[in-house]
Amino acid sequence: MKKKEKNPFVNSDTNKRYYTFDCYLKRRFGRKCAKISLDGGFSCPNIDGKVGYGGCIYCSERGSGDFAPSPVLPLKTQFEEGVRLINGKWRDAYYIPYFQAHSNTYAPLSVLKEKFEEALSFDRVVGLSVATRCDCLDDEKIEYLRELSERTYLTLELGLQSANEKTLRLINRGHTLADFERTLEKLDGINVCIHVINGLPGEGRKEMMETAHKLASYRPHEIKIHMLYVLKNTPIHKMYERGEFSLLSLGEYTSLVVDQLEVIPGGTVIGRVTGDGVKDDLVAPLWTLKKTVVANEIDKEFARRGTYQGYFCEKR
User: Fold this and answer.
1) Which pLDDT tens digit goes with each residue over 84-116?
2) Per-residue model confidence (pLDDT) at position 152
3) The overall pTM is greater than 0.85
4) Is 153 helix (H, G, I), strand (E, B) or coil?
5) At what angle do helices 109-120 and 139-151 cross, to 10 degrees?
6) 3-state class (DSSP) for residue 313
7) How many Å is the Cα radius of gyration of the chain?
8) In CATH, what number does 13-306 get?
9) CB proximity list for 143: less than 8 A, separation 6 or greater
10) Where do the domains of the chain lie?
């Protein structure tokens, strides 16, 4: 019997028991699609003083865009460099430019239009991903994004990180859960990918599962689950050195992610189940560098339990 036949989860074309982004894109576009990270040179209201200074306590100077090319390069040059890097693996792939660094709707609408429309004009592009914050989306920008989503496969990536108000204050997020939910409601009809982080200071399994249940209630198009990692020269690095919190082990993390995915509806796309920082800047945990190992451990835990994404949604 093939692995595929053993898998009880319907939204899979491999042994994965969760709805991978790769599977979703292959079903939608009929072939491999690859995201190409870009840095549009945007800033963030949590850095320049509009809502706060210093950014979130875990954020690097590149604002989560550590793997994107330099923002001084033209967008087309950045895109071509990204394509070159993946051409050895996927020569016939389609591409999705990903505006990743900082808050990519934090600029006048005219600037957004110029950059987004340029990215959509590149060869073999079938969509666009835009990472931003809930407080960088006024009605005029949302109207443009809605129109854009009717022309292409647009995903708006919003960082929530935690549904716990105390945690949001601690990490210097600069917005509340209510702020996030108000914006999410306005984005109805636009594909939204919500980011969360496991292992934030002060949170245990209870708080992280509460965030997962909140995600399930939103029923977004996609979610991304990250492990908290500590980078050099960040506020959280100092907290870690002072022993103010401990990090999850690989076993704790993989068990938790499976717990969370079991309550996420099976039709929600899972954009990622872990993340990693730049190796030279990473303080801990070092196991996050082995993304394949993390993914494999999650697969094994699902198989051991005999469950899959949305398992408890079905039971209810």
Assistant:
1) 998 878 888 999 999 999 999 999 999 999 999
2) 98
3) yes
4) strand
5) 10
6) helix
7) 19
8) 3.20.20
9) none
10) 13-306
